[in-house]
Specification:
The chain has 412 residues and is mostly helical. It has one domain. The protein has 15 helices and two strands. Strands 1-2 form a two-stranded antiparallel sheet. The chain is globular, with a radius of gyration of 28 Å. The chain starts with a helix and ends with a helix. The mean pLDDT is 76.
Length: 412
């Protein structure tokens, strides 16, 4: 029945698009058939991927049966470990070395952070109505003055060190890039337009608000996050080639991951292209460097290397005059480059919004101990939550019964 509904929906969408292309009088005759073939190919690919997901979840193949058993196991609350405690009754913390305290604190911090951002058995409404402490991590991700950059870097280290799951190796970059697209891309452009309107309204355009030293450090931290994401890409490729026993969760994967690989190359190409273009801007416009005035090619490439090193924060700005406007323009240029790179991160929204139709992977999350688990559906979350309330009520009844028994047996 679901297949028939999907066929009717896709047929209606495809027919509407093809009719619109056919009725357009200004499209060239050589371009119309190609566009129609491309639309048909995309819709067929979406239909094929949706059928693969449906068969993988409801069929009788080994993968489908394995996945249903795994999901049934995940709905049992007894299989979910509790959150780690700050002080354990089984340990004598007086005789433990200081580095053990640090290691235990980092484990606790990792478990709390990953469970707050990507919980496997909860959603965002749980943080709003049940556990308010989870909202603290979301607030930290929105904090300015470099706090957000530091928290994202800390999350990247937590995901890299203790996780062996393909989906999580892509979940972090997709979330970070989508966050940057909205916060450092779209909202930054809107903020600058508001500033420009206020500038021309109050005749204060001569007062230039250039990037500060703190914003420069934040921009360098933003570029450093690319390196952490690329390390995750490498670990993702490594996990794909490993047997299932070395992974945290059984994850159904397709034979090819062309869409994900294209996203990886897009991410790398965007940064390298923007760094190259803005390096040319820094050399030929801001510093007013004429390559024909240089004595040899080695001197030119030396200047290029120095400017690239300045962009990533490993070298001082070379060859700018005593005019401070050159330094101001260089800092504004770096801020503008970060905005452009953030806006070009829009394709990563397909990973979050497209779901399994795009990445063909089983979604995972984290439990309260920081381990990777299968991401439960809303119905499975409700079933698990009701089971937890029943078990909690039984535990309270047993404890209250023991308390009444002690009160009766105790001497008056």
């Amino acid at each position: 029945m679901e297949d028939l509904k999907w066929n009717a929906l896709t047929w209606g969408i495809e027919k509407a698009i093809l009719d619109a292309i056919h009725d357009q009088p200004f499209i060239p005759d050589s371009f119309g058939p190609k566009l129609s073939a491309a639309v048909t190919e995309v819709i067929d690919e979406v239909h094929t991927r949706s059928r693969q997901n449906a068969v993988g979840m409801s069929g009788y193949s080994t993968q489908a049966v394995h996945m249903r058993l795994a999901r049934k196991h995940e709905c049992n609350p007894t299989t979910w470990p509790p959150a780690p405690r700050i002080f354990s009754k089984r340990r004598c913390w007086v005789n433990i070395q200081p580095w053990c305290w640090v290691w235990h604190f980092l484990q606790l911090l990792r478990a709390r952070a990953l469970y707050a951002i990507w919980p496997a058995d909860r959603d965002f409404s749980y943080a709003i109505f049940r556990e308010k402490w989870m909202l603290v991590w979301f607030a930290l991700l929105l904090c300015p003055y470099g706090v957000s950059t530091c928290v994202w870097g800390l999350l990247a280290l937590f995901v890299l060190v203790g996780t062996r799951d393909e989906f999580q190796m892509l979940q972090y970059p997709a979330t970070l890039r989508s966050f940057n697209f909205v916060m450092r891309g779209v909202l930054t452009v809107l903020r600058d337009y508001v500033r420009f309107y206020a500038c021309i309204s109050h005749d204060t355009c001569h007062q230039v608000q250039h990037a500060t030293t703190l914003s420069m450090l934040v921009n360098r931290g933003y570029l450093a996050e690319f390196v952490l994401c690329w390390i995750m890409f490498a670990k993702y490729k490594w996990l794909r080639r490993r047997p299932g026993k070395t992974k945290d969760v059984y994850t159904v994967m397709p034979e090819t991951d062309r869409a994900v690989t294209r996203l990886l190359f897009w991410d790398i190409g965007v940064l390298l292209l923007c760094m190259g273009l803005f390096t040319c801007e820094l050399l030929f416009d801001i510093q007013d460097l004429n390559p024909f005035d240089l004595h040899d090619a080695d001197m030119f490439w030396t200047e290029v290397r120095r400017n690239l090193m300045w962009i990533i924060g490993l070298h001082d700005l070379p060859n700018y005059s005593s005019d401070p406007a050159h330094l101001v323009r260089s800092r504004v240029m770096l801020d503008f480059m970060v905005t452009v790179v953030s806006l070009l991160s829009a394709p990563w929204l397909l990973f979050l919004l497209g779901g399994k139709v795009f990445h063909q992977m089983v979604a995972t999350g984290y439990d309260q101990s920081g381990a990777v688990r299968l991401k439960l559906t809303p119905a499975e979350m409700k079933h698990k939550w009701e089971e937890e309330k029943v078990r909690s009520q039984k535990t309270e009844d047993v404890e209250s019964g023991k308390t009444r028994k002690r009160s009766v047996l105790s001497p008056q």
